[in-house]
Amino acid sequence: MKIAIGCDHGGYELKEHLVAFLKEKGYEVKDCGTYSKESCDYPVFGEAAARAVASGECERGIVVCTTGIGISIAANKVKGIRCAHVCDSLCAEMCRRHNDANMLALGAGITGFNLAERCVEVFLATPFESGRHARRVAEMDAIEP
Hints:
Elements: E1 2-7, H1 12-24, E2 28-31, H2 42-54, E3 60-65, H3 69-76, E4 83-85, H4 89-97, E5 103-107, H5 113-125, H6 132-143
Parallel strand pairs: 1-2, 1-3, 3-5, 4-5
Helix pairs in contact: 1-5, 2-3, 4-5
């Protein structure tokens, strides 16, 4: 599975940690930046990772900023993206199981390395349940212009 990952300066250290973690687990990673702690704008990198997922180049995506909020909003502006901001592994599971989320957003100022790893593991391993949830996902997708 190929994973797109992007961050701003506030998420840089966690992104770098997750890139190494993902590669160690055997995932292919497309690093959409940023590539330093120099101040930058999260919408640029949230959009880049989201476009890699929306285009099919990557199967899933992960975005990181200080809170996870701004970069998730930016990613969700891309048609076809369902980016879930999570703070624990249960939410990482349920966003996949019930919402077929294709991107995960984490807050580096909120979520430590160990919890972030667990959220990523659960997010990538959990299948979409489909069934009644497929109707709801289709309703969400229909909202997009």
